Amino acid sequence: MDLMVEGVSIALQRGEELAYPARRISFTVKPGEFLGLVGESGSGKSLTMLALLGLESCSPGVVEGRVRYRSEQGQLYPLEGLSHYVRWHGGLPRKRTAAWQRTVYRRMKPLLGRRIAIILQDAHKTLNPFLRIEDQLLEMVARQGRADAEKAGWWGRWRQRRSIHQQLRQEALRLLKALHFRDPERVLRAYPHQLSGGMAQRVSLALALASRPEFIILDEPTTGLDVTLQAALVDLIRQLKQERRLSGIIVSHDLMFVGKVTERMAIMFSGELWEIGPTHNVIHPDFPWKHPYTSYLLSFARQKRRGSAGPAFQNVLWQRPKQGCPLRKSCPVYLHQLDMEQRRQCDSADPSPVPVFPEHYIRCWQYAWEEQKHAAGY
Amino acid sequence: MQPVIEVQNLSKNFTIRYREDWRVYTYSKQAVRNVSFSVFPGEILAIVGESGSGKTTLGKMMVNLVRPSSGQILLNGQPVQRLSQRRFQPLRHLIQMVFQNPYASLNPMMTVREHLEEALRLADVTDPHAIEQEIQQLTQLVKLSPQVLTEYPDQLSGGECRRVNLARILARRPRILILDEPVASLDFAIKQIIVDLLLELHQKLGLTYIWISHDLEIVQAVAHRILVMFDGEILEEIPRDGSRRDGCGHPYTEILFTAAHRLHTWEQEDFSTLGAVLPQPTAGTTMASRERGCRFRSFCQRYRTIGRPKLCRETPPRFKTVSQNHLVRCHFPWIENPEVTPK
Amino acid sequence: MKRNASRKTGLLTAGLAVYLLLVLWGSTGWFPKSWQQVPSRMPIYQYSPPSREHPLGVFFQQDLLITFVRSTQASFVAGTIALLPFLALGTLLGIASGLPAGFAQALANRTIDVLNAFPRFVVLLLYTGLFAANLYHMLMLYGLISAPKLAELLRGRIDQLRREDFIDSCVALGLPWWVIVRRHILWHHSRHLILAQTFAMFAMAIFMEASLSYLNLGTREHYQSWGLMLNYATSVSGLSLFRFPLSAQFNLPAALPALGLLSVTLLLVSLSRYWEQQDRLKMGRMF
Ligand SMILES: Nc1ncnc2c1ncn2[C@@H]1O[C@H](COP(=O)(O)OP(=O)(O)OP(=O)(O)O)[C@@H](O)[C@H]1O
Ligand code: SF4
Ligand SMILES: [Mg+2]
Known about the structure:
CATH superfamily of the largest domain in chain A: P-loop containing nucleotide triphosphate hydrolases
Strand order of the largest sheet of chain C: 1-2
Oligomer: heterotrimer
Shape of chain A: globular
Number of domains of chain C: 1
Structural class of chain C: mainly alpha
Order of helices and strands of chain C: HHEEHHHHHHHHH
Number of strands of chain A: 12
Largest sheet of chain A: 8 strands, mixed
Distance between the termini of chain A: 42 Å
Radius of gyration of chain C: 23 Å
Number of domains of chain A: 2
Bound molecules: adenosine-5'-triphosphate, iron/sulfur cluster, magnesium ion
Structural class of chain A: alpha/beta
Largest interface: A-B, 54 and 56 residues
CATH topology of the largest domain in chain A: Rossmann fold
Strand content of chain C: under 5%
Number of helices of chain C: 11
CATH architecture of the largest domain in chain A: 3-Layer(aba) Sandwich
CATH class of the largest domain in chain A: Alpha Beta
CATH superfamily of chain C: MetI-like
CATH class of chain C: Mainly Alpha
Number of helices of chain A: 16
């Protein structure tokens, strides 16, 4: 239902030493709400999502901060990979991969594939190439009705195997129809390599929805889909939100698509969140308070095609400056609008999130100054 | 002008076999139906269409990866649809294809340099010195930084991977390129860069492109002609300039434009109204049962608004020339109520 | 990390060098005069301890060191002889059975089944029984009838790879099929597999040779091998390798082949591990 992420940093093994590709990430996703995580490629969006769920293989993952997930029944699951360990021992475990993986996996086990579903970027890789879609999909569909099946006992299940199978098939067909497949029967019988790119994408979506998750994470869901299917996906997500109070996170670089389905939007760049707030405020061109990077993204979307939207922001994911705001080297506001005094402030310290609106935070010194002025009674 | 590719009545049937209760059943899917078009040298021909409409299959048939069920493909006037791989080999330097999934189309165990070397050796560059030079030139051509050469495909970013694919294929010096979704899944900035690169190559090397895509905006900006595909059929051929200025168009194209337009506005658009426009089969009807009449009619808004005319039910529509170079496969090609006019 | 890897390679190269030197030495057949002169009055079934003329002693009227060097060379020859037909037939069958359904594929598959159905050792015994055969022929035969092991692994690999996009893209680029099979499938995606099978076969061939010699099967002249050494060693009464509690009498003629076998196996294992590590480093997936 809801996911609470507080001050999370993520560590990766890069050759000999550890690198921290994502830092100080905080957000909450409330029941029935979607959060959009938007940014350029290479800004660490997918990585963050994978690490939050402990799926970033062979790397420590979350080493700082808290991640908690509350299920529909109100049960709290602490997911924070290793930060617990780091807090206690003041460092990472010596023994590498195996220990990390085990710790994280133990926490994720009751959630993944039952309460939380995740759709990865490459659809063809998520499907098993040697099984028909039917075999993969029915298995997932069967998960939701486990309780009834358990009650029937093995003899009951054996006697009713035909009708159970039929029910599962019907359910799977309904799911595929909801995803606008023309001939779901044929899709069920096909092997993954017999599907087109967009169809594989939709099948992996169906796989994720089949287990009736409460929380869903979509990584670039629109890549293979044409515009009508994108619109259909918008519709589907809205419907699921209303019917099942499904919540989730959408990771994408398509501002417009994300703007259509999410309530809140977070802008990520260089592994940090720069702005988080209600979607309408963040993407609306007339909303007065914006982070410089958000304006840059929006100018791209607004221009639609030709020309570039000013000089690009420099990605400092792997070489960040020692102090000051990491974006200042390429920030147009810093370069062209600020005076010397203000620049010195940007050089000296990293900005912290400033509320500019209820539940709308921006990490930029411009708004921090306004806040100070406001507090001083100007 | 002599067309470089001429496709005549091309069809492809896929069959899927499966076994249930000890009997073997087959499903047959006509992925491409009776498609005809021609491509002229130096042209950028775009093919747009919904997912699963047979765009990739069409492209693969043109490079002899999928054997057509019927119909003809003429490459420079020479029929190639029945050639074996070996016979087709001399034509491979003429036509090449860039695949949809850039990562999967490179060997994960080979470095970028090895990929390029292999392609160059095919193009009869054998001298190591010459290979080195050619690699330099290729990387410059696609604007790839030289340190990428020693990396493995899964270390590349999306944009780099596309460039590597392009460079590998350009090593064979093709005249015609089939680009299967060349910019899908790239983010805005890189998408722009790759499109610019492709256009620059088109200018510099005088290539002919068949640009398969579902991104209407980019396609409208770059293509000279657009073919709209739906369920294996070509429904409309739109010329670049007078596109829909004549007030005509196929209902499916209208859906595409409406959806694209609505997706790209700032407002929290309500799509439930679009639900009727989306190609949803109405209850009980499938495409397969539509042998007579217009195959699109169960999805067709126009058919419903003009009162389900008998013409649509009985006769399959032919291509109608509504203005110069603008062909529509519909009995009633006039747009009643154009909500959006592109550009 | 780096030092660790180099130390492993150092050991590996040292071991390999020693083994290959022994093999080379054996194949030149040159030994010091004093080693070759054996006191003829010595009884056959007696092991005389090391002396200045004979560094490891004399056994069966021969210098033990000479015997050891010769039998090391024999082990190498045996491994290689069994290996070549194994690799050739295995790859051929593997590729053929990975082809799209057709005559060649069916033929390859049935061949694999037939070869799998024969008990291997029994076939070897039958062969000697029927033809009174040479040891080398038997080893070759052994290599041939073990080929399905490799072929089946290759078939699985090819089946898996055929659905990959990059094979399609290679075809579209215009690579001929044998290049795709050779470079993309065999070299880049199956080389560990082939390598591992090679080692297994090498080891199995040495074992086979030792057992066949121990059983005194196969005809040969002036032949030394670890199996024969063991055979003679066990025929010396009162000496055994593992006596409990360990006594002063230590059966050197039996220990030498044991040591040799052990070191060869270790060498092969570490070589394959080294390759594996190299490949993982290459792919950037060390951890
Ligand atoms: N090898 C195959 N065997 C059976 N059916 C296939 C095969 N390849 C493709 N198809 C079917 O042919 C149809 C067209 O597929 P194609 O890949 O050409 O679609 P597409 O237009 O490229 O769609 P997308 O935009 O999603 O990539 C699909 O319905 C697909 O299921
Ligand atoms: S012919 Fe009729 S049913 Fe077909 S697209 Fe045109 S209006 Fe619709
Ligand atoms: Mg496709």
